[in-house]
Specification:
The chain has eleven helices and 13 strands. With about 300 residues, the chain is α/β, with parallel strands linked by helices. The chain is globular and about 50 Å long. Bound molecules: alpha-D-ribofuranose (RIB).
Length: about 300
Amino acid sequence: MKHILVVGSMNADLVIQTPRMPRMGETVRGGGFRVNTGGKGANQAAAIAKLGGDIKLLGCVGADPYGEMLLSNLSRFGVQTDGAQTVDTATGVAVITVCGGDNCIILDAGANACMTPEVIDANAALFAWADYCVLQLEIPLETVLHTARAAKKNGAKVVLNPAPMCPLPEELLALVDLFVPNSSEAELFLSHPVEGIEGAKAAAAEIRARGVPDVIITLGGDGCVYSVGGSVQHHGIVDTPVVDTTAAGDTFVAGVLVCLTEGRSMAEAVRFATHASALCVSRSGAMASVPTRDEVEAFMARNGK
Ligand code: RIB
């Protein structure tokens, strides 16, 4: 089986539910407060493990209870955490407000900011091991670029989930093999609106024209568009009750990656990932809401797909 290395963030998610978002200066009553393990890097790594991939994670946590909780949950889900660093800064935190199934997130990078290029260089063995290297943007951008260079130098394919989006250097784009933004990230990247499925198809073609070989744009309730080898296709969602969308994008990225490392086509990968993220949104939480491989396969069989 091919090897996947995720280089990214690990967060403690402080989650609260509210019937409606407060206006600035207003207090509203919420409930169901909980602390979950999350972070886009950790979620994607956990999801890859749960969906059957061979996965290692390189990232930083603090020497605190949140850091311990993250490392123990990641190991429990099957992520190899030999690349996880414990540093003298508090574990990253995400404050998440869930409202009507959707969410707003505010991040404090904490230990994730300690992911420097030096940490990448000190873990060269992981890059010799990896066939795919998966990146997001919750660690410093210079480290993302340095990581992509290290991955490429070792012959690995580079996958970038540009979340949260920021201006990206051309050199990074030139190193990316698969780019997976959602529609608002695609809008920020292209500096123009991306409207509807046709708009997303045009956006995918535009991103490819900027030198990225393969592109998938996720569209929430409209599914996704994917562009591989020149053609652009749309894939719709699988209908499930939406409880909490946290980690749905992470689950989607993981589902695609697991299928690609198994040599399956992008069409099959997108179909599998769509079913996995549909199950994820039907549950609350981050990495805990990601389904297992068996659950996704049973769900696909029930749907006749
Ligand atoms: O993608 C979801 C994740 O984004 C959450 O788990 C939170 O930690 C933020 O990083």
